[in-house]
TrEMBL record, chain A:
Main location per the UniProt record: membrane
Organism: Ancylobacter oerskovii
Family indicated by similarity: Belongs to the binding-protein-dependent transport system permease family.
UniProt membrane topology term: Multi-pass membrane protein
Domain of life: Bacteria
Domain ABC transmembrane type-1, first and last residues per copy: 64-258
Protein's name according to its UniProt entry: ABC transporter permease
Length: 270, 281
């Protein structure tokens, strides 16, 4: 029981900050229904032109398809690597594990522009081996996205593992289960939700990755954020408002679903 | 017990190996390559690093970046403190509402959020249209493509990162200490100012460092909201890579950024316990 609830001043300030956080997302909605060809508020009539453009314009459509493809592949590989890594860490002594965790979290901590430069170096190098895996290729972008998203997946799986009761694993071990049996039959079923969440959120992160993608693509591998970037720099295309609304709605639904499914006893008041 | 641990060591290491090897090849080695560029392009030597401290353009970009990041950090941490306070200590409904305010924007792409600020503040955006419709202003105010809009956009992105360490510091505060303060007759404000705030100060310092580190490498938000006028370090790297190919300088700036971040992270490791529990979103 908290002895002191936030007072009116604290509530007002928090509400103000909350509003600041939501406002730019909400402002996108009316803009997306403008009939005009420029970024503007709709005057009088509303229109779905820009939403139609998303499915009719081949550029937008192929960018959406490409981002989905890369996102799914990234999610699969990233989550698998992260889950295997986190399981290993969970079984290791804390002394060994700190250094390893620190290492794999690097892409999350290092400034994105440095990671972008690093991946640019890697992919232009790979280009010399084969065009199909290097700079401006689907495989190249996927590799870069795996590097950038894997730390987030590791953190999420580690958090899920921290909530597993070690005694059930000890029991399995005591009964003679092999490492593989312990993982498949005991640990994984207990962190299934965490792993699924990690996979979903890695997909979201890959689907919207721009900082690194900008450095490693030029004309062929145009992902959705890359296309949005091109439309944002110069004359702002209102189709971006439409795709933004779609992205905001999808992300919000995913998060609300996650919030509803997740039991978080630590936040509930006793 | 010892034997058992040792027998578990190898399978555990084998499980971690794929990711560690992947990142070693796809991340650590290429970074060394970038570091190599910084001393070999265009010629062997430390010329690029001398430019970092000697070239007035590069220096002014670095100084501007530090100035903007400092302002952003102070504003973001203060705002995060206010929202986290209610998120941690408020009623259930208040917590649910604020949770949405904090975490929905967090997962939405930087591009969409930068676009959101354009939609809100540009000449024909929401704010100017409404103000004109209400007759409060005659012509639209120039609210984007300038430094304040860059700061607003960056604060927006960074608040959630500050919330996590602050929340873990606030959750760790012992209620009985607050109870004691009240028992001795302290007012609400006094309890907050003399007891609660000092107790959560480690969280504030952790949040400040995290936010500052993250803000240094910002690229997308300043590039869109700054309109090319107030260039920050990360955008300078991009321009040096793709507009006036000067890879050596781009690489040198990258190495310098990593060194700065490493120094700040070493400072942060004093607050590691707080920061680590905070990053588990």
């Amino acid at each position: 029981m908290k002895i002191q609830r936030p007072g009116p001043l604290a509530l007002a300030l928090a509400l103000l900050v909350g509003l600041f956080l939501l406002l730019p997302l909400l402002a996108v909605v009316p803009i997306s229904f403008t009939p005009g060809r420029m970024l503007s508020m709709p005057q009088g009539s509303l229109s779905l032109t820009h939403y139609r453009q998303l499915i009719e314009d081949p550029d937008w459509l192929s960018a959406i398809v490409l981002s989905t493809k890369i996102g799914l592949l990234t999610s699969l590989v990233s989550t698998t690597l992260a889950t295997s890594f986190a399981l290993g860490i969970w079984m290791l002594q804390p002394r060994f594990s700190q250094l390893l965790v620190g290492f794999v979290l690097l892409p999350m901590i290092v400034p994105p522009v440095v990671s972008a430069m690093t991946l640019y170096f890697l992919l232009t190098g790979l280009s010399q081996l084969s065009q199909a895996v290097g700079f401006d290729s689907v495989v190249g972008v996927t590799v870069a996205h795996i590097v950038m998203t894997v730390p987030f997946a590791v953190v999420m799986v580690l958090v899920a593992l921290a909530q597993v009761d070690r005694r059930i694993d000890l029991a399995a071990r005591g009964l003679g289960a092999t490492v593989m049996q312990r993982i498949v039959h005991v640990i994984l079923p207990n962190i299934g939700f965490g792993v699924a969440t990690a996979a979903l959120l890695v997909f979201v992160l890959s689907w919207e990755e721009i900082g690194v993608t900008l450095f490693i693509t030029s004309v062929d591998a145009i992902t959705l954020p890359r296309l949005m970037w091109m439309g944002l720099r110069d004359n702002v295309d209102p189709a971006i408002a439409a795709i933004s609304v779609v992205l905001i709605v999808v992300t919000t639904l995913i998060l609300l679903l996650r919030m509803a499914l997740q039991r978080r006893p630590e936040f509930e008041e006793e | 017990m010892m034997m058992r641990n040792r027998s578990a060591l190898w399978p555990a290491l084998a499980l971690t190996a794929p990711l560690v090897l992947f990142l070693a090849c796809a991340y650590a080695l290429p970074f060394l390559g970038v570091a190599l560029w910084s001393v070999t392009l265009p010629e062997l030597g430390t010329g690029q690093y001398q430019r970092l401290v000697g070239d007035p353009l590069v220096l002014s970009v670095f100084l501007r970046t530090f100035r903007i990041c400092l302002v952003v950090t102070v504003v973001a941490v203060a705002a995060a403190y206010a929202i986290t306070y209610v998120w941690v200590r408020g009623s259930r409904l208040q917590r649910r509402i604020l949770e949405i305010c904090i975490f929905v924007p967090f997962w939405i792409s930087l591009l969409t959020r930068a676009f959101g600020w354009l939609a809100l503040l540009s000449n024909r955006g929401l704010f100017n249209s409404w103000m004109q419709a209400l007759g409060l202003i005659d012509s639209p105010l120039a609210l984007v493509r300038n430094e304040p809009s860059v700061i607003a956009g960056m604060v927006h992105v960074l608040i959630p990162f500050a919330v996590l360490p602050l929340a873990s510091a606030m959750r760790a505060v012992d209620e009985r200490v607050l109870l004691a303060a009240r028992g001795m007759g302290a007012s609400r404000l006094r309890i907050f100012w003399s007891v609660f705030l000092p107790l959560t100060l480690p969280g504030v310092i952790g949040a400040t460092l995290i936010v500052f580190v993250f803000s240094l490498g910002f690229f997308v938000t300043p590039a869109i909201l700054g309109g090319g006028r107030s260039i920050m370090v990360a955008e300078l790297v991009y321009l040096r890579m793709f507009q006036s190919p000067d890879w050596g300088l781009g690489a040198a700036i990258s190495v310098a950024l990593v060194l700065i971040v490493a120094a700040l992270m070493a400072l942060l490791s004093r607050f590691a316990a707080l920061a680590l529990t905070g990053s588990g979103k």
